[in-house]
Amino acid sequence: MKKIMFQHFIVFLFITACSTKDDLHASPEPKNPTDAHPVVKADATYNVLVKGNITYGEGLAHDGQSSSTTPIPLKLDLYEPDNALGNRPVFMFMHGGSFRGGSRKKAEIVAMGNYFASRGWVFLSIDYRASLVLGNIYTGVAPQEWIDESNNNAQMVAMYTAPRDAKAALRWIVANAATYHINTDYITIGGGSAGAITAVGVGVSADEDFRDEMSTTEDPTLLSTNLTATYNIRTIVDFWGSDSVLSVHESVYGHNRFDSNDPELFIIHGTEDKRLVPYSGSLDLIDIYESIGVYAKLAPIEGRAHGPWDATVDGKSLSDLTFDFLVERQKLTVEN
Q1: 99: pLDDT confidence band, cut at 50, 70 and 90?
Q2: Which fold has domain 38-331?
Q3: End-to-end distance of the chain based on CA atoms, in angstroms?
Q4: Where are the strands (E) in 97-181, listed by range?
Q5: Which residues pair with 210 in a beta bridge?
Q6: CA triple 47-310-302, angle to 5 deg
Q7: Which 8-state DSSP code applies to residue 239?
Q8: Which of 69, 27, 1 is nearest to 325 (CA)?
Q9: pLDDT digit string, tens, across residues 217-241
Q10: CA 215, 208, 56 angle in degrees (round to 5)?
Q11: Is residue 119 within 8 Å of 143, Cβ to Cβ?
Q12: What is the DSSP letter of 243?
């Protein structure tokens, strides 16, 4: 995988190489089949219970006035179906915002949470530390080698804290799986834009990445993030993202993390996205997935630029398309 250095990051920090691969790399069967397939509904069936403002851990930030770090709470909103089933799949989603800001309460994500929870998923929308909450001093919030690579660029520093926090949220899911009747064999992570870039980084990277580069002495907030919990991500859902987090990680640490054990990947991307997170980056990801022999599918949104939340393909919304992919590849049981 190519290295992307700081000077190549323009506006959104993400430039990726073009690829000429098709939008589908076929594989005969989904990974890790199991007999205990969760049951989901074809249509909105269940009332949705929303539990907002849940703290899933803490992370360090600066207050913008001193050089010392301060712990801040990391929050998520949880959407669950009002049913008695004890075998629910889970879908964790991360907002976009150029690694500067954004919100877990974005209207399109709220709608997506209700869509999946009403059909039987537990859906979580998480916030993570973007540059606007990190302050203007980065010592202590990310490894020094990452800060040095970024040349103190705030958004690149946040490209470390975002996956660090997302992994903490995944550990929270596992630690609380019994409470919310979650089947942890069916974990999907996804996001839009910066959130998708984070999801790809989290799904492909090794367990220790974005966790062990800083010790609990350097960052005591790690102790609040269920460090003993382990997880296995089954599927990555990527709305207009790229592999940029992994590219920076490789630049800093020299590790190419793509391999045949990676989660399956579903990408939705506008073909005219050329300025923020270029469509060519998704073609590149399909190329990489073909090379490692893992199933990936790209649903191009023809003629659309960045963030086409309202788009449809063959009359299907983004949530419909994602539903179909998860049901097919995870072999979920669908009831009317």
Answers
A1: very high
A2: Rossmann fold (3.40.50)
A3: 43
A4: 122-126
A5: none
A6: 140
A7: E
A8: 27
A9: 999 999 999 999 999 999 999 999 9
A10: 75
A11: no
A12: S
Half-sphere exposure (CA, 13 Å, Cβ side) for 228? 2
Q: How far apart are CA 267 and CA 305, in angstroms?
A: 14
Instruction: Tell which residue, 74, 73, 69, has the closest CA to residue 218.
Output: 69
Answer for the pair 161, 134: CB distance below 8 angstroms, yes or no.
yes
Rounded to whole angstroms, the maximal C-alpha distance in the chain is 57
Count of all residues that appear for the chain in the document: 336
- DSSP string for 282-305: HHHHHHHHHHHT--EEEEEETT--
* pLDDT for res 276: 87
Task: With CA atoms as reference, report the closest residue to 199 among 141, 266, 260, 136.
Answer: 266
What contacts 44, CB < 8 A, 6 or more positions away? Answer: 114, 115, 118, 119
Q: Report CA Rg, the chain.
A: 19
Q: Show the tokens assigned to 267.
A: 């990408």
DSSP 5-28: -GGG--TTT---------SEE--S
pTM of the model: 0.90
Q: Which residues contact residue 133 at a Cβ distance below 8 angstroms, ignoring those fewer than 6 apart?
A: 61, 72
Q: Give the Cα separation of 88 and 200 in Å (integer).
A: 23
Instruction: Over range 6-12, report the average pLDDT.
Output: 38
Return the structure tokens found at 86.
């004890």
